[in-house]
Amino acid sequence: MEDWITRRSQNRTPTKSRFNAGATESHFQRDRARVIHSAWFRALQSKTQVLGLGESDFYRTRLTHSLEVAQIGSGICEHLRATASNDEHREWLAPSGLMDAACLAHDIGHSPFGHGGEVALNYMMRDHGGFEANGQSLRILARLGEYSENCGLDLTRRATLGIIKYPGFCDDLARYSIEPGTSSSLNLDQWHPPKGIYSDEAEVLDWVLQPFDQSDRTTFQHTISPDQSHLKTRYKSFDTSIMELADDIAYGVHDLEDAIAMSLLSPRQWQLNFLIPLEEITDNPIKNNRDFYTENLFSGSNKKRKHAISKLVGWLITHVELEEQKQFSHPLLRLQASMTPDAMAMLKLLKKFIMEEVILRPELQALQYRGQQVVLKIFDIYLHNQKRLLPTAVYQESRDSDNPHRILCDYISGLTDASATRIFHRFSTPSAGSIFDRV
Q1: Contact 438, 161 (CB under 8 A)
Q2: How many separate domains does the chain show?
Q3: What pLDDT is attached to residue 59?
Q4: Please, are residues 43 and 111 in contact by the beta-carbon 8 Å criterion?
Q5: Distances (CA, A) of 108 to 68, 186, 418
Q6: Are residues 371 and 420 in the same domain?
Q7: Alpha helices for 250-391 (secondary structure H)
Q8: Which of 305, 336, 360 is where one domain is finished?
Q9: Where are the alpha helices (DSSP H) in 221-340?
């Protein structure tokens, strides 16, 4: 276990005396504390989850979403610990501090304005390494975070492994199908990023994977090639598989709650586009309790709606199980958390329902598009006026960097929806802003 509680800073200045095999959990509690106390984490309170900030005080931001993912992730671990079939499975299940750290940090690299802002930054970085939220999360944890000068938040090796959803490099995974002359910042549909990390973090990934043998490392980084789209990584670590299931549950179920609370979904949509297709899934909690879920979700009562949502989350957690990937030898890669087939089918149907009935509706797409244009505009302005307009510290770092675009991208991705909007108005609206403004 000593390999997994090592921090990158210790590779530079060895401190073997600090290890205490009986206090492993304290190392992961320190990871959790560093994430919680980071300004990068606090910024998530003003970053879009799905619905635009300012529309209501009820629905989720990136921060509240991350807190809920952590709670669900810990719940999954407790369920798996109670149902584990052997001691090895229990031994390698993440303790609470570790799972909290991975779940709380999983979105720490997200840009302002949700996935729309992510696509906009990727477009501006298209010739300079790209932008992808999970890749930016690793960059913050390993380089930009405020705990250390050169190692970011300097989390343990295992916590760092836990947040890496896609162990491949964006440069290697990218397969854009852009026809010459068709690319325009007015439509960024073709610029969704590949899911991976930056080539700049190759040294970090190499450090994270050191405890694995060469066969495990090679297999772990295998990719698959879907038709006419980016390459995709195939595998995740044990901790990441739990974190990602928690993320999917929170995304599907809690976005449903937000959409109903904001009157963006009607009982008729629920009936026609979710309950009817759900009939094809044999094992699900709603099928035999349709009236309970429909009445409570659409009752107009926060308490009744929350009761139904909580029962749904609890059912999904108890339908997570352990499996083994025989192609790996190390338990952190061999062990995986997965949902039973019917539970996963229901969750996928729920996410599809939210995507089609809420996220893709023109009203929300207009908010996303507006956010994209804000990000594009301020990036372009700063890029061409770096000495004149960038904060002094950011300009000095950019001036000294081999990739100044990356430094500018780090700065803009760290903005909140509110601060990015203020900057946009300061540069674009004659009556906005003053010399005393601060980002």
Answers
A1: no
A2: 2
A3: 54
A4: no
A5: 14, 27, 17
A6: yes
A7: 255-261, 267-270, 276-278, 290-297, 302-317, 331-334, 341-354, 362-384, 386-389
A8: 360
A9: 238-249, 255-261, 267-270, 276-278, 290-297, 302-317, 331-334
pLDDT tens readout for residues 402-428: 999 999 999 999 999 999 999 999 998
Rounded to whole angstroms, the Cα distance separating 36 from 339 reads 29
pTM score of the predicted model: 0.92
Tokens representing 47 are: 């970053």
Is residue 273 a part of any domain in this protein?
A: yes
Domain end call among 345, 360, 375? 360
Q: Do residues 290 and 397 both lie within one domain?
A: no
Which amino acid, residue 95? P
Residue with tokens 């670590």: 237
* Mean pLDDT, residues 289-303 taken together: 95
pLDDT at 16: 47
Please write the tens of the pLDDT for every residue from 83-130: 998 999 999 999 999 999 999 999 999 999 988 999 999 999 999 999
Neighbours of 122 (CB within 10 A): 23
CA distances 203 to 13, 142, 143, 206, 240, Å, are 17, 10, 11, 5, 20
Name the token pair of 39: 């300004």
- Please state the φ and ψ torsions of residue 340, each to the nearest 5 degrees: -60, 150
Output DSSP code: residue 148: S
Residue 134's nearest CA partner among 198, 74, 188, 52 is 198
